[in-house]
Amino acid sequence: MTSRVEIMAEIIYLNGQLIPRSKAKLSPFDHGFLYGYGLFETMRAYNGHIFRFDHHLARLRHSAQSLGLTHSILNVVEGKQSLETACMETLEANKLKDARLRLTVSAGEGDMTPDPSTCPSPTVLITARNLIPLPPEKYESGFKAALSPLRRNSQSPLSRLKSTCYMENILARMAARAAGCDEAILLNEQGYLAEGSTTNIFLASNGELITPSLESGVLPGITREAVLEIARASNIKTLERQVELKELIEAEEAFVTNSILELMPLTWFEGKPIGTGKPGQLTKELLAAYRKLVDEALQ
Prior knowledge:
The structure is a single chain. Helices cover 28% and strands 29% of the residues. It is α+β, with helices and mostly antiparallel strands. The chain folds into two domains: 120 residues, Aminotransferase class 4, branched-chain amino acid transferase, N-terminal domain (D-amino Acid Aminotransferase, Chain A, domain 1), CATH 3.30.470; 163 residues, D-amino Acid Aminotransferase, Chain A, domain 2 (Alpha-Beta Barrel). Strands 7, 8, 9, 10, 11, 12, 13, 14 and 15 form a nine-stranded mixed sheet that branches.
């Protein structure tokens, strides 16, 4: 695994204000802290442009409605600033161009008991850090993954929300890292393939691009969505369905996606190579097309 040094920015956005991180204060009774009642979006900025911010915001709004977080901040932040403006100002305040941003929204301060109706005003937090991408060599070798004993509950609405209830993901990733792997792969309660601890997963077989359906207990990833769009525009047959574990083991090639990694080849699983054990041609072509999509968005 490759280590990277990324420095957290000194200025953050908190409830309508840009302030030094050392001055930031969150209530000990914030329901995001007490109960994980909140949502977040991890976004990537390229040369000062937040890629597909509108898609991230749409997912945030949809998720917020699912949780009952219907505060007006989902449309307008305090001080009449849009969330996009707040994110851009956070980047600019820290003089960041290529960055990792996190937008977190919680129910806010309330009673110490789990009762969101006692939370009159949500907490909105935006943090950023400079992003040092993984080196090209990592994309040439790919990720190694381990099967997690944890299971996604496809019947739970939380499986399709990017919520601050993230303990399951953390435990899965910690176990994979302890085993010398880059990522953990989770199945759902029915034994079908779901996703990685922080990624969506794709596999290629017989000329088809296959990914677990959202009904499998999968986060509707922004990069996942972009890859499907690219593949369909290129007349590649795409399938979103239940995927058996053996299909991953027998796949010709596979890769995982998220906003920070883009498309990372998945070359080893459970100590055995996927396909040739090297990034496949389709994976390489889709990664190149994704980066072209990013470049076009910057123009």
